[in-house]
């Protein structure tokens, strides 16, 4: 299968490589889709993961897969689904250092699985945009806030939708979210920077 996108970054190849092998951070980074990621080293350059991804396929609303990753430091991460839906599927992330920038061929296993069933339709492109946005958001060192559409961290099945009654303050809009499946509420304050107002934020932990 072909890589999903080709792009470049100012960050070093080693930093990007390290970023992609932090598997335990995937549920936070891609929480709209990634419900679980357990990684176990299985050799000097291999890691085996147990992954659960939220995806609607007929009666199923998730897939559970075992994936083998082969790491070539600062150059390539190859992966293969070795158990579960899509078994045998292979793809890779490749990194090349050029003068002043780092070239990237990116693939996301969720999209490999999605494309097996739905092809590369408009929804594929929307999901790809999500993965790319989230990847660069975290690569650039920012941290996450909960937002509408995120996977519920409680039931890991439903998605967050806004509670009725948006409260508009002078300096920010605070909003609570609720899971559309289990009903668990997640409070947060999302700061919207407006003219001449400096941002500050706080996150309410439930
Ligand atoms: Zn839930």
What does this structure look like?
It is a single chain. This protein has 4 helices and 11 strands. The protein is an alpha+beta fold. It has 2 domains: 5-139, START domain (Alpha-D-Glucose-1,6-Bisphosphate, Chain A, domain 4, 2-Layer Sandwich); 146-206, no CATH class. Strands 1-7-6-5-4-3-2 form a 7-stranded antiparallel beta sheet. Strands 8, 9, 10 and 11 form a 4-stranded antiparallel beta sheet that branches. The chain is globular. It binds zinc ion. Zinc ion is lined by residues 152, 154-155, 158, 179, 181-182, 184.
Helix-strand blueprint:
Layout: E1 5-9, H1 13-20, H2 26-29, E2 34-41, E3 46-57, E4 60-72, E5 76-84, E6 90-97, E7 102-106, H3 109-118, H4 122-139, E8 160-162, E9 167-168, E10 173-179, E11 185-190
Antiparallel strand pairs: 1-7, 2-3, 3-4, 4-5, 5-6, 6-7, 8-10, 9-10, 10-11
Bound molecules: zinc ion (ZN).
Zinc ion is lined by residues 152, 154-155, 158, 179, 181-182, 184.
Number of domains: 2
Number of strands: 11
Q: What is the correct CATH architecture of the largest domain?
A: 2-Layer Sandwich
String of helices and strands: EHHEEEEEEHHEEEE
Shape: globular
- Using the coordinates above, name the CATH class of the largest domain: Alpha Beta
Query: Spatial order of the strands in the main sheet?
Result: 1-7-6-5-4-3-2
Class from helix and strand fractions: alpha+beta
Biggest sheet architecture = 7 strands, antiparallel
**Which band does the percent of strand residues land in?**
35-45%
